[in-house]
Amino acid sequence: EKKIKAIEETRGSLSIELYSSLLNLAELQIEEKSYPDAKETLMRAQNIGHRNEGVLNLGQITIINKLTNLAILEENFRQANQYQKFLFFLQKKQSADSENIARAQINMANWLTDTGQTFFARSLLKKSLENARDIPVLQLEIAMAESRNKRIEGLCCGWKKLEAILDSKPVIGKELMKEAYLEIADSLTLNR
Fold it and tell me: Would you give the DSSP letter of residue 15?
């Protein structure tokens, strides 16, 4: 807090130099379970980001994710969902190409699946396929998200599309391939 005060005195209360110090302070407040203070600190950092870099700056993604986690810790699930919707809006708005739009859609679909909104997640994943037509890695990530979504909802055979993509031998990294096979294994284990 001394560092923050020193920056405020020399640079002003809206200086971008406060940004990282405020994030560090928020982390300490979260560790100490001082959630209202952490939220206030994060909101202040976000406001400084807005003033210096614009309302739609991508630098606030870290803050939005921390605010989401805080909302979950405080059992304010509606607020957590609102933060993630804003994050999705922000990522789509800043995306210049279909690949980044598809990534934003996959991230949001994963959030929706994790929070039990599986119908909306599946709808979003279908839209993301349009943006990932010629990108094998994204197609595989979408198929993995669809498989997981169906598995969580208790629907059968979401892994078959994933298996078909892997059988076509796409050019993907080993780590992603391992994740895909683990998803198939999870689906087969739970669908017995």
Answer: -
